[in-house]
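FAQ: What does the model actually see?

It sees only this:
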Amino acid sequence: MACRAGRAKRDLVRVVRAPRTGELSVDPRGKASGRGAYLCRDAACVDRGLREGSLGRALGATIDDTARERLRTEVAGAMRQAT
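And it is asked to produce this:
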């Protein structure tokens, strides 16, 4: 999403905005309901998506500093589990 590279779905991490609460979280199975966006399993891509706001735009959400740091931690954990 941030780097716009085409990759297989299994090579990406899905971040989802819950439909009722608007809470943002990593969706490791890729099946949670809500608005989703995909990021490469690359820390630079994750940082770019958060820094430039493309992740927030894709999810239709404003990402504050607290949520940004929590997402960085969750995405890093999802990347470790995939390897």
